[in-house]
Amino acid sequence: MSGRTITEKIIDGNTDWEKTKKLNGNGRVVNVDLLLTHDVCGPPTSGIFYQEFGRNARVWDPRKVVIIPDHYIFTKDATAARNIQVMRDFAKEQGITNFYDVETPRYRGVCHVALPEAGHVKPGQVIFGTDSHTCTHGALGTVSAGIGNTTGAYILGTGHALMNVPESIKFRLENLLPAYTSAKDVILKIIGEIGTDGADFKAMEFCGPAIERLGIEDRMTICNMAIEAGGNGIIAPDEKTLDYVRLRRSMSRSECSNLKKLIQELQSDPEAKYLKKFVWDASQIEPMAACPHSPGNVKRVRDLDVKLDSVYIGSCTGGKKKDFFDAAMVFYRYGKKASIPLLLVPATCEVVDFIQTEKIGGKTLYNIFEESGADMNSMGQPSCAACLGGPKDTYGRINDEPNHNRASTTNRNFPKRMGSGNVYLVSPFTAAASAIKGKLTDLRDL
Description:
The protein contains 16 helices and 18 strands. By secondary structure, the chain is an alpha/beta fold. It folds into three domains: 6-163, Aconitase, domain 3, CATH 3.30.499; 168-284, Aconitase, Domain 2; 288-445, 2-Layer Sandwich (Aconitase, domain 3), CATH 3.30.499. The strands form six sheets. It has a four-stranded parallel beta sheet with strand order 3-2-4-5. The protein has a four-stranded parallel beta sheet with strand order 9-8-7-10. Strands 14-13-17-18 form a four-stranded parallel beta sheet. A hairpin with a 7-residue loop joins β11 (288-290) and β12. The relative contact order is 0.13.
């Protein structure tokens, strides 16, 4: 067998070869390790499941279905409340114990951050989710992708997915990132250069010294936004991956040993074939911003002169622990306050605890943000909040302000994505620096 990429190895290992033979070369039948859904796409997915498999049908394996309400929650909107109730009923009917109900002790927060936090993700898996940013989990060495509701329903009933093996594009980052840049700048730089269709239906494999240096949450940021270039992200697992998984899963000594061996195997072969290969010098990457109204409309922050009305730190892309730590470090280091409204939305309850307890120079992140001028009493509850717009009472949503300029650590800036207004996608470093200056600001210019 010729050399294979990590993506090919994982799909090969999960292929049902007997069923695949019946397709006569038209794709693969792949065993699914995990199906994720939430309050927006969960109701139609479950509805299609009952429609196609029968009202008394049972999901293929309730242990492998995870439901996390996170999008339209903490709102008085009746439709949003109905959606959550539909998923409560479905989880109860199907015996799905991995249901993280909102406003209960089990609730965790945004699905793409909560899923690995809760120990559901490990290298070598095939994960599908009814949300495009499911590709986040490629950061832990999985093949992960967003799917439509109909495909989700098919998986619920069969545990299989029909798919083609995607071609891979290699993105190698040599050297190390400068201290004033982050993972968000890396992925914005890449999308800006290859375009929003530059990796359509391809596996974007990220590697090199700069990637290896990054922690798991920064790797999640990069894989999360792979879909903004049309692809799915993946990073080969290593010791950092193993340590992350060990902390979050109950594993025996033999299971740990097997996982370590698997991680060693899940590396692309030197002779593996790639559709394209790109190489960047990470030391030359600068703070970047995606300007309205596309994640591909990327420019250097220093080339922009944009007055801002607010700054938003949150989402599956930019609301993780590392993201808040980076932003807090800017306020702490420079000792300056935000000159415009600064909105904070932790991605998960675990991030909330981190903000309240993690310290920089003897001060908790909570204290640092409070002293920086953020209104901590009205900090958004762990959720997607304004990232996907939502009902008008959604925290942080720009309602009817078409000229409002916002810097945000989120992943999309389509028209009305967060409500009316213009959204500039930036890193947590740039978000904090911009909140201080009141305009888009490169951290070097504080």
